[in-house]
Amino acid sequence: MVEVHRVKQTMDEIGKIGSTDRGMKRLAFSREEKQATDYFTAQCEAAGLSVRMDAAGNVIARRQGTCPELPAIGIGSHLDTVYEGGKYDGTIGVLAALEIVRDLNDRHIQTKHPIDIFAFACEESARFGFSQIGSKALAGLIKQKDIASLTDKEGRTIQSVFAERGLDFSRLEEARLPEHALAAFMEMHIEQGPILDGKNLPIGVVNGIAAPTRFTICVKGHAAHSGSTPMNQRQDALIGAAEITIELEKEARREMEHGTVATVGDIEIAPGAMNVVPGETHLKVDIRSISRASKDRVVQFLDTFLDHLRAARHLHIDCTLLSDEPPVRMDAGVIQTFENACREKKIGFIRIPSGAGHDTMNMAALCPVGMIFVPSTGGISHHPDEHTDLPQIITGIEVLEAAVLDRAVVDISKKAGTGNAQ
């Protein structure tokens, strides 16, 4: 059985690292993140695992299987946080993986497949404005040149930050895992949204991870005096921006069944005076879905609506594509494994999309993947008030462990000793 006291103690210890009076600050490749990965490494070694850090800063711990030639079953998450973040995002996924290995050791259960625990580097975009560097490097989805120009808020280059961490940035691409290194990857994470908490359900089986298509839109009209310009003779750039925002929301609502959302998260107005009709606005648009087709429909609607707005309001509108990432579907077999575990344990669950990105979406380039959510109290995340009750975390660990055992295959002919490290 999962040892509740041990889970709590481990969470409390790692929760002290990077804790401030304004929440967590354990940024990627920082001194605090290193302290967290050092603590994690020590705990893994105490559990009999072999541990290594790859060229991207990912920490990978292996519990050897009785058939070491078989591909490993991967589990884990990340230990870095955002500015003023919470103690649960990412961290519980790493600690869940560690506790599973400890529990297998306690029960002398050995598996045929090795089990690899991943503590991914730089999952959060907080430091460099670029997320999931570690898992993208593992999956071969980024090259050194793609991120070579990144700097943090203090102007420090990613190369210098790597060097301080004892890493050689020029070797980043060596982190890519060999083909067929993993048979499956599974991650446990807090939901970071209100659905499970609102429905009082303990487990969300993720069916897909949404990916964003992002634009900047510049709407140019004509600045004019707010008192002397008749309403029917204005070229108000802000009104144009407002129409884009409202109509985009309406279209996204029509696609809600596909988990599609659209957000205008930033608007700049020029010249920005109370008595001047706005002559120019800049919008940043984020459209996400777990359905490529649904997201494409919203994007097409936006393109068509901008044409309409140009003609109807005599505005000049430039729309620039910033990024267009494909959504990732979870493997049907891994979804079934999670759902079977919930049914066998009589644990309530629903299928649920993930609107936030996670390392799992990159691991899908390597192997079948799956993910479960546990509730976020009040739907709060990336905030000091982020919280998940300990019993909910334990339930998640039990479901994840059942799935790991199903995939890693228990070797009934052997008994594990301490951890059978490589």
Automatic annotation (TrEMBL):
Cofactor: bound how, per the entry note? Answer: Binds 2 Zn(2+) ions per subunit.
GO MF annotations for this entry? hydrolase activity, acting on carbon-nitrogen (but not peptide) bonds, in linear amidines; metal ion binding
| Annotated Zn(2+) 2 binding sites | D89, E124, H382
Q: Which residues bind allantoate?
A: R214, N275, R288
Alphabetical list of Gene3D superfamilies matching this protein = 3.30.70.360, Zn peptidases
Q: Which PROSITE patterns match?
A: ARGE_DAPE_CPG2_1
Q: Supply the alphabetized keyword list.
A: Hydrolase, Metal-binding, Zinc
| Keyword presence, Thylakoid | no
| Peptidase M20 dimerisation domain segment(s) | 215-308
Q: Indicate the family of this protein.
A: Belongs to the peptidase M20 family.
Q: What's the name of the protein?
A: N-carbamoyl-L-amino-acid hydrolase
